[in-house]
UniProtKB/TrEMBL annotation:
Residues 501-580 are annotated as: Disordered. Its cofactor is Mg(2+). The gene is thiE. Belongs to the thiamine-phosphate synthase family. Residues 313-482 form the Thiamine phosphate synthase/TenI domain. Condenses 4-methyl-5-(beta-hydroxyethyl)thiazole monophosphate (THZ-P) and 2-methyl-4-amino-5-hydroxymethyl pyrimidine pyrophosphate (HMP-PP) to form thiamine monophosphate (TMP). The lineage of its organism: Bacteria, Pseudomonadati, Pseudomonadota, Gammaproteobacteria, Alteromonadales. Keywords: ATP-binding, Kinase, Magnesium, Metal-binding, Multifunctional enzyme, Nucleotide-binding, Thiamine biosynthesis, Transferase. Residues 566-580 have a biased composition (Basic and acidic residues). It comes from the Bacteria. Binds 1 Mg(2+) ion per subunit. Its EC number is 2.5.1.3. 4-amino-2-methyl-5-(diphosphooxymethyl)pyrimidine binds at residues 330-334, 362, 401, 430. This is Thiamine-phosphate synthase.
Amino acid sequence: MSLKPLVWSIAGSDNRAGAGLQADLLTGHDFEVSVSTVVSAVTAQNSSGVSAVDAVSLDTLSAQLESLAIEQTPKAIKIGMLANAEQLRFVADYLASLKQRCDVFVVWDPVMRASSGDSLAGESLAASAKALLHVVDLVTPNAGELSLLSGMSVNDGASLKAACQAMLAQGCTAVLAKGGHWNLDGEALDYYLDAQQELLISSPRLDTAHSHGTGCTLASAIAATRAKDYPIEDALILAKAYVNQGLRLAEAQGEGTGSVAHAGWPTNRADFPRIESAHSKIGQWFGIDNNWPALAPFASCDTLNLGIYPVVDSLEWIERLLELGVKTLQLRIKDKRDAEVEADIKAAIELGHKHQARLFINDYWRLAIQHGAYGVHLGQEDLLETDLNAIADAGLRLGVSTHGYFELLRAVQIRPSYIALGHIFPTTTKDMPSLPQGLARLQRYADLVREYPLVAIGGIDLARAPSVAQTGVGSIAVVRAVTEADDPALALEQLESALCHSHENGNPSTGNGLDSRFRGNDGIARGNEPVCHSPDLACHSHENGNPPTGSGLDSRFRGNDGVARGNDKSQREEALCPKD
Ligand SMILES: Cc1ncc(COP(=O)(O)OP(=O)(O)O)c(N)n1
Ligand SMILES: Cc1nc(C(=O)O)sc1CCOP(=O)(O)O
Ligand SMILES: [Mg+2]
């Protein structure tokens, strides 16, 4: 039994190892999943073209599938080249029955032609494709394949959208029409459509001839990330970033075109795509139908380090926290009419100003503007229903919730005042539709978006605060860790101290005591700023003679031997979070 999520690749062997099964294995390795392979055909090819395609028999195909299924069913399957219509129908039947036995995500890259231009499996496949379309969760054709599969000509945004709609009508759940061949304003565009949404993601077109294996790599990256439970939007973003990175690093091979590189988990912001809104030129050309805002930047919080950030639901709590010296806090009252909350919101805003604190109002953005709040906090759904320009024009700060790569990139595009990253650990405070992110993902998000104040939220308590702070976030938002503490003042002091100590001790990966978020991509320090945020609470235990322990863990959580004991409940819940 594989400990990593398992992906099957049903595809052809590419003996030059740039595409097909070989590319899928490399991609799976980079995304830290296990890949098992089912060979559909053996091809002979090099950088000048394909010289042989030898399809395996249905018996051999079946034997490979059965031998794998007996041991372990996969979380995702990537289908690449199928060599003939019989194979296609066989795989369609097999998947229909497998899907009755297990929950598996299937992505089909309908390879009909190699990037060298050689036909691999022939146009006859298109006729049999319908059976397979019914069992795949996502099909990833390029413009030519989309045209063949849909039976429609594809020559502009409108015809591409119509062809994708025709594909859904044929029974497939979602289509990603790859735009490597489109060149609009120098952008390479991918268009995604399912029954709920359409997305247009774009990246500057990378002019390289060395693109062999991009289609296989994109589809297997989607399979790998879906196997790791990333939502489809995040899988699309990660896969495109991975291919962009691979194209940027691709090198010539032999006489002709080289292959896309497989260079590890994408971490370079420049490789990550843009999510187009209906307002952008490209969005308009495509006729994208969404109401995502395009905006000027919001006012700054004047620091990357917002410190311990309590989120509370009453004026009484706001008053109490301000008196304790808290400098970043939020009033989060849920599901009441404006008239019911206005008096408390107004009073909280006045108190916030009196204490020179950064008080954010959750959800009630009109009242926040009306009464001159320091800032507003909004979730992703809220963003679509809010007049963000009114918030920006009034000079209020804006904090935005995110729960993964897609939402993070979308948040960055509206240039908010801070970005919240949640939920890191399981929480009982709020019903979350998404899965907990865990520390490893938090680290990746924090490394990707260094120019914004970052706030980690969700299930964070004193035991977890040091490891959260080690990721480089400048703030930790908490509800229960303060509101359910026996002594909220002590809890705040200890949390603030844990955050400060982790920052003072530096990020272990940088080794020189400087917070990694103050570095550029080149690792060079870009300047630093004071890391203790709440003058009244700052690093008390340190100043009072309780020096940093060296690991950032509060002494309450160590045994006599100094070894961290954690807290049992925290550790149990932590086991639920993804470790990737
Ligand atoms: C600091 C911070 N981060 C995230 C949230 C969640 O906001 P949202 O997604 O709008 O959900 P609700 O809080 O409105 O339920 C937050 N409030 N604060
Ligand atoms: C309000 C809220 N928003 C979250 C998000 O991830 O967007 S998690 C969360 C609740 C955080 O509460 P606690 O500190 O008690 O776990
Ligand atoms: Mg909200």
